[in-house]
């Protein structure tokens, strides 16, 4: 065998891997001791930080999206979004709980018979009258009970309340009772 120093030997290129350069250096040094026995000495070295491939990045990105999606899914299972309460309000007209005094123009309660501002007395104006032949009246809208009175024909009444065909009427003297509102005759 020829003397290695007199013959041109091709360089030996070794590659060492390591997460850090220090890790690779440790392997390189132990190798260098071995190679020195054969007359090789290191002349150049270069360290290149490892790079993730494009595919690895895409896989990581996909896993990331899957993980985020999974977390969002768990979040959606656990946390409910705010509920919505939907309320529909229909205009029913303004409830006539007040009236305007025709004398002083102040707003007063609908049931008031005397204006609390000017003392104006309100005329009781019936809206209906009892038909010819009179009209039976009940204390409550219950036909199984006997009527309490028969109202005189032509008596003026105000219908204060409705319950189906029943109507609670009020008379001028403050009397109130229930009648068959279908039989009442409306005053024009
Ligand atoms: Zn008044």
Protein architecture, described:
This protein is α+β, with helices and mostly antiparallel strands. Among the domains are: 11-47, no CATH class; 95-124, no CATH class; 125-188, Roll (SH3 type barrels). It has two helices and nine strands. It has helices at residues 21-36, 54-78, and strands spanning 98-100, 107-109, 128-129, 135-137, 149-151, 156-163, 166-170, 176-180, 185-186. The protein has a five-stranded antiparallel β-sheet with strand order 8-7-6-3-9, with no helix packed on it. A two-stranded antiparallel sheet has the order 1-2. Strand 7 (166-170) and strand 8 (176-180) form a beta hairpin. It is rod-shaped. Bound molecules: zinc ion. The site of zinc ion has 8 residues, from loops.
Give a brief rundown of this model.
The protein has 188 residues and is of the alpha+beta class. It has two helices and nine strands, in the order ααβββββββββ. The structure holds zinc ion.
CATH superfamily of the domain at 125-188: SH3 Domains
CATH topology of the domain at 125-188: SH3 type barrels
Unreliable spans are none
Second rung of CATH, namely the architecture of the domain at 125-188 = Roll
The SSE string, one letter per element, is: HHEEEEEEEEE
**Strand coverage percent:** 15-25%
Radius of gyration: 52 Å
Give the neighbour order of strands across the main sheet.
Answer: 8-7-6-3-9
Secondary structure topology:
Layout (H helix, E strand, L loop, with lengths): L20 H16 L17 H25 L19 E3 L6 E3 L18 E2 L5 E3 L11 E3 L4 E8 L2 E5 L5 E5 L4 E2 L2
Antiparallel strand pairs: 1-2, 3-6, 3-9, 4-5, 6-7, 7-8
The chain binds zinc ion (ZN).
The site of zinc ion has 8 residues, from loops.
